[in-house]
Amino acid sequence: MVTPGRDAVIENIKEAVKNGNFNSKVEVGDPVLTDKKRQLVLDHYLKVRKKLPFKTRNLIAGRVVDVLTWKYNHNTLIEGLENIKDVKGGAFITANHFNPVENTVIRLLSQKMKRGNLYVISQDTNLLMGGFLGFLMYYMDIIPVSPDREYMTHHFDGLITEAFRRKQNILIYPEQEMWFNYRKPRPEKRGAFYYAARHNALVIPCFTEVRELPEMETEDFHKVQYVLHVLKPIYPDPEKTTRENSVAMKEQDYKQKVEAYEKAYGKKLDYTFEPWDIAGWVPKTEEK
After folding, report:
1. Fewer beta carbons below 10 Å: N end or C end of the chain?
2. How far apart are alpha carbons 252 and 42 in whole angstroms?
3. Beta strands 118-123 and 142-145: pairing type?
4. Using CA atoms, how far apart are residues 196 and 235, in angstroms rounded to an integer?
5. Is the dihedral of CA 179, 181, 182, 188 positive or negative?
6. Nearest CA among 120, 255, 245, 158 for reference residue 193
């Protein structure tokens, strides 16, 4: 899905790559929260998510997302399912973060794993998105992540425990921010793996390859096809501390994603920016 404002976002990606800021925000127009507003938004979300109207809208959002998963993935390929054939219960799933609808690829995987829902760890600012996408972001099975210390200390872990109690998967993005159609795996933050280690949960690393198709979606972008590469699960080591596990798991996760990238595209990972990095993009003549 190509959303408006891509020229500005691509310029932000170029600048971030140049400065080595691979986890920085590049999207434009995202909501900005004050500390007070953030507390109000999170408190309201925690309060209403247990009520009947929210649960009803959650069911509606789930069915809509099922339809969208089919719509955006009718030609998606999944490779490496044999790597997780023995996985029981819920798991953290990590993936490269590059498109508003790429989580539907992971939903397709979760469906093939016979998990009813997919929980998504998402920035708290997404709870304020408007329109149809905002409805889905609020009423899907979202676990907000936030800079708010009180929320992270007293509520975040509980939401993770609730999902695992239901034997569901949780999608988490170690790259943090979405970089539109950016093909390359980016260096990861340790936080995702800290929570995996803390909950003694396995991690299923995934890398989504994006193949350009001949047809155009917009004047500037080709349509694309997704190929999801399911990599080898990563388990916490009972002999290591939470911190030691989080560091080791992060390193394994990133290493596998880099290897998947290099195998999928037949080229070594190099963070020098080139137009090819943005899947499907047809740059202006001076960009080529």
Report:
1. C
2. 33
3. parallel
4. 9
5. positive
6. 245
pLDDT at 4 over 80: no
- What one-character-per-residue DSSP string does the chain give? -PPS-HHHHHHHHHHHHHHT-TTS---SS-----HHHHHHHHHHHHHHTTSHHHHHHHHHHHHHHHHHHHHHTTT-EEE-GGGGTT--S--EEE-----TTTHHHHHHHHHHTT-S-EEEEEEGGGGG--HHHHHHHHHSSEEEE-S-HHHIIIIIHHHHHHHHHTT-EEEE-TT-S--TTB-S-----SHHHHHHHHTT--EEEEEEEEEEEEEESSSSBEEEEEEEEE---B---TTS-HHHHHHHHHHHHHHHHHHHHHHHHTS----S--GGGBTTB---GGG-
Give the Cα separation of 49 and 56 in Å (integer). Answer: 10
Q: CB count, 10 Å around CB of 15? A: 13
* Tokens encoding 88: 């029981």
Cβ pair 224, 211 in contact under 8 A: yes
Residue 33 has pLDDT above 90, yes or no: no
Q: Of the ranges 154-158, 192-196, 282-286, which one carries the lowest mean pLDDT score?
A: 282-286
d(CA 204, CA 213): 28
Measuring CA to CA, which residue among 72, 76, 122, 79 is closest to residue 97? 122
Average pLDDT of the chain is: 94
Q: What is the distance between the alpha carbons of residues 126 and 33, in angstroms, rounded to a whole number?
A: 11
Residues 6+ apart with CB under 8 A from 165: none
